[in-house]
């Protein structure tokens, strides 16, 4: 394969990594805006939502041009497909982060639920750690590290269930917080979905290394796993 192809592929890979870093920051900023009720920051996040979308479109355009002009061999073709698929998942993660910011803008009260705020912060911290580990696994083409990242999603699912239980309990105790609690439910759901997309990133790393599409989401592989985890480790 020509040096020109390798150089262009490296540019695409750098674009993908930049997307990943931007998305991680987007998650951090959206959770900060939500838990601190920072309406100004939330509006800024929503207004710049197109940044990650534009990066994904540019990456897709350049990737398709590279396929058309260079006709890569199988292994290099997989590398491009991996970038296309994984960047799509990053874009969806960015969309979910922006959706959290939009939920912040829906809140018309200064009131918060401190226990749920803490649960959300813990979910966000874990998710960002998973995303950064996934990006590192991609850089090093480390499929075993990618698989370990995917296994951590069961902890996100567990935190989601625990947070949801806290929110429902608050709704039952305080009927005046039902609207706020409903927004909380949407936020923890968005975080849970982000976890699923990070699992997808791991699956694309394995595909790039092996040419095989595998299911790595622990909750899908063993549907009863979350219930078992909650039973054995209820906190």
TrEMBL record:
Give the protein name, as stated in the record.
Answer: Phosphate-specific transport system accessory protein PhoU
Q: Which InterPro entries match?
A: PhoU, PhoU-like_sf, PhoU_dom
Domain named PhoU: residues: 18-103, 120-205
Q: What keywords is this UniProt entry annotated with?
A: Cytoplasm, Phosphate transport, Transport
**Where in the cell?**
Cytoplasm
Purpose: Plays a role in the regulation of phosphate uptake.
Entry annotated with the keyword RNA-binding: no
Pfam families per UniProt = PhoU
| Transmembrane feature ranges | none
Carries keyword Protease? no
Q: How does this protein assemble?
A: Homodimer.
Biological processes, Gene Ontology terms? intracellular phosphate ion homeostasis; negative regulation of phosphate metabolic process; phosphate ion transport
Q: Which GO CC annotations does the UniProt entry carry?
A: cytoplasm
User: What family, per the record?
Assistant: Belongs to the PhoU family.
């Amino acid at each position: 394969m020509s040096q020109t192809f390798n150089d262009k592929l490296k540019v695409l890979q750098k674009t993908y990594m930049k997307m990943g870093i931007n998305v991680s920051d987007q998650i951090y900023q959206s959770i900060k805006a939500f838990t601190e009720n920072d309406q100004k920051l939330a509006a800024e996040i929503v207004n710049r939502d197109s940044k990650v979308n534009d990066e994904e479109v540019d990456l897709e355009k350049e990737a398709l041009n590279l396929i058309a002009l260079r006709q890569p061999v199988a292994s290099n073709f997989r590398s491009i497909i991996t970038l296309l698929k994984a960047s799509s998942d990053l874009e969806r993660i960015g969309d979910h982060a922006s959706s959290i910011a939009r939920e912040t803008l829906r809140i018309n009260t200064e009131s918060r639920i401190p226990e749920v705020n803490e649960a959300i912060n813990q979910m966000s911290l874990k998710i960002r750690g998973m995303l950064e580990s996934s990006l590192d696994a991609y850089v090093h083409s480390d499929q075993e590290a990618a698989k370990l990242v995917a296994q951590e999603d069961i902890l996100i699912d567990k935190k989601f269930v625990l947070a949801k239980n806290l929110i429902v309990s608050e709704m039952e105790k305080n009927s005046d917080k039902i609207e706020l609690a409903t927004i909380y439910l949407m936020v923890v759901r968005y975080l849970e979905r982000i976890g699923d997309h990070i699992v997808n990133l791991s699956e694309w790393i394995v595909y790039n290394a092996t040419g095989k599409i595998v299911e790595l989401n622990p909750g899908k592989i063993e549907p009863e796993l979350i219930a078992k985890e909650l039973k054995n480790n209820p906190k």
